[in-house]
Amino acid sequence: MKQVTLKFVRFHCLDRHHCAVQYHQLIDGIIKRFEDLYSHIKIESTIMRNWYQLMYTLDKKLPTDDAPDIFHTCGGGILEELANKGLVYDLTSDMDKGWRDRFIVASLCPLRFNGREFAIPLEQGCIFVWFNKKIFEKLDLSIPSTFDDLLTLCKELRRSGIVPFTVGNGELWPGEFFFSHLFHRIGGEDLFVSDFTISPNYAYIRESFIKAAEKLIELVDAGAFPEECDTMNYEQQRMMFVQGKAAMQLNGNRLLNYLQVEGREIIDQLGFFSFPLVKGGNGKQSTIFGGSLATYAMSARSLHKEEAILFLKSLTDEFSARDIIYKMGDIPALNHIPYSEYPSPIQGRMAEKLGKMEKVYLHYFKYLPPHPAGVYLNTVARLLKKDILPEDTFKAVEEALSYVSAKKFTQTGGLAI
Question: What topology is assigned to 126-288+366-406 in CATH?
Answer without folding.
Answer: D-Maltodextrin-Binding Protein; domain 2 (3.40.190)
